[in-house]
Amino acid sequence: MQFIVSALSAQGRVTLNLDAMHAEAAAEQAQRQGLTVLQVKPAGAAGAFGLPLGLPLLQRRYTFPITLFSRELLSLLGSGLSLVEALQTLAEK
C-alpha cells in the first residue's frame, strides 16, 4: 500500500511516497532515513483537479502551530524553567 509521508529533514519539510504494509511501517521507513515524521496518510485515488475521492471538499484539518510552540518553549527554557515545567506550562494554554 502506498503512503504519503510528511516529514522534517535538516533542509526543511519533505514529502515522500512510500510503499509499506501499514502507516506505522511507512513512518518507520522515514525515521530510518533520519527524518522526523509529521504525518502519514494513505495515498488515495485522485479525482478531478487532483482532489482525493471520497473526502468532503470543505474538510478542515488541524495544523499544529509548531513555530509558535517552538518560540514559546525556547522562551520558557531561556527563562530558567526545566523542560518538564515548560511543557506543562504550554499544555495548560
Task: Draw up the topology in text.
Layout: E1 2-9, E2 12-19, H1 23-32, E3 36-42, H2 66-78, H3 83-91
Antiparallel strand pairs: 1-2, 1-3
Structure description:
This protein is of the alpha+beta class and 93 residues long. Helices cover 34% and strands 25% of the residues. The protein has helices spanning 23-32, 66-78, 83-91; strands at residues 2-9, 12-19, 36-42. Strands 2-1-3 form a 3-stranded antiparallel β-sheet, with helices on one face. The longest helix is centred in the last third of the chain and has 13 residues, at 66-78. It is elongated and about 45 Å long. 6% of the residues are buried.
| Share of helical residues | 25-40%
Order of helices and strands: EEHEHH
Poorly predicted runs of 5 or more residues? none
Q: How many H/I helices? A: 3
Whole-number average pLDDT? 84
Oligomerization category of the chains in this entry: single chain
Major β-sheet annotation: 3 strands, antiparallel
The dominant shape is elongated
Spatial arrangement of strands, main beta sheet: 2-1-3
Instruction: Give the termini distance in whole angstroms.
Output: 39 Å
The chain-level structural class is alpha+beta
Radius of gyration: 17 Å
Number of strands: 3
Beta-strand percent range: 15-25%
